[in-house]
Amino acid sequence: MIFPKEFYPKRIKDCSIQKSRKKFKNKKNKNTFFLLQERLSWMKNYLKGKKIIIELGCGNGASKYILKNNKIILTDIQKYSWISKKVDMTKLNLGKKYLKKVDVFIINHALHHCPNPARSLKKMLNYLKKDGLILINEPESSFFLKLFQYLLDDESWSYKVNVFNSKKNIFKSNSPWDSNTAVAQLLFKNEKKFNFYFPNFVFLKNELSEFSIFLNSGGVVQDTFHIPINKFIFNLMNFVDKLMIWFLPGIFALNRRVILKKIK
User: Fold this and answer.
1) Complete DSSP assignment for 148-169
2) Hey, where are the domains in the chain?
3) Residue 257: per-residue pLDDT
């Protein structure tokens, strides 16, 4: 199946963040909890000894709960009882007290909802310390991700945008759920191109992950069909996923992990 350069779903996506938070906290669906652990636990080593950690677009706030780190400052464009500060990722007005003071930014499946990711990354440079980090999880626009988006009439993608243009938005944002799931691939797949536009960053990590463990998760912000499994089976599926992604990354990978380090 050959996909078009752009796809825009007909339906308007609308999910309950409150329901999503309740879902992972009560652990009724262990598949979702296992997925979130796998998606976030790798960040722990990069948070050790850090004083100022800010998550942008935190949504259900799973990172603070899964990582068990009370220093994480949760922010989102929408106000929830668990967030510390309402922040628009595109404008990123954190205040003078954070200029060149932030140790780590966390962006977990939120950058593709940002209408101008290049502008956001540039603004983060103003707040990061030298050697500060940005820890990122983002959807990977592989064959299967596009197939599922197309069949389910879910999120949009577009390869016709200039994702490095910080002066022009890549989509019109009418709701927090508007998105372009090709963002991570457009930004990070070609590291040399990224470094041309962002010479202040170096990559510490840029890898692909997740296939069946995401498909059988039951959804993070949506409820989807899943077969309940235990931790052993989850780890086995994750191992098989890694093999499949290693052989055919452009077909199977549904997630991209990235670490950017500010060097100047």
Assistant:
1) HHHHHT---EESSS-TT-TTS-
2) 6-262
3) 98
Torsion of CA 108, 221, 141, 241, to 10 degrees: 90
Amino acid identity, residue 119?
R
Q: Would you tell me how many other CB atoms lie within 10 Å of the CB of residue 206? A: 16
Q: What is the pLDDT of residues 32-72, one digit of tens each?
A: 999 999 999 999 999 999 999 999 999 999 999 999 999 99
Give the angle 118-66-135 at the CA atoms, nearest 5°: 25
Residue 6 main-chain phi, psi, to 5 deg:
-135, 145
CA distance 216 to 228: 8
| Chain-centre distance for alpha carbon 47 | 17
Q: 130: part of which helix (H) or strand (E)?
A: strand 128-139
Structure tokens at 263: 């060097």
Q: State pTM to two decimals.
A: 0.96
Q: What single-letter amino acid sits at 41? A: S
Return the DSSP state at 4: P
Please choose, from the candidates 155, 165, 156, the residue with its C-alpha nearest in 3D space to the C-alpha of residue 117: 165
**Is 6-262 assigned to CATH 3.40.50.150?**
yes
Contacts 24+ apart (CB under 8 A), 127-130: 127/54, 127/92, 127/94, 127/98, 127/99, 127/100, 127/101, 127/102, 128/100, 128/102, 128/103, 128/262, 129/100, 129/101, 129/102, 129/103, 129/262, 130/100, 130/262, 130/263, 130/264
Nearest Cα neighbor of 111 from 92, 129, 86 is 92
The answer to whether 257 and 249 have CB atoms below 8 angstroms apart is no
The predicted structure's pLDDT at residue 94: 96
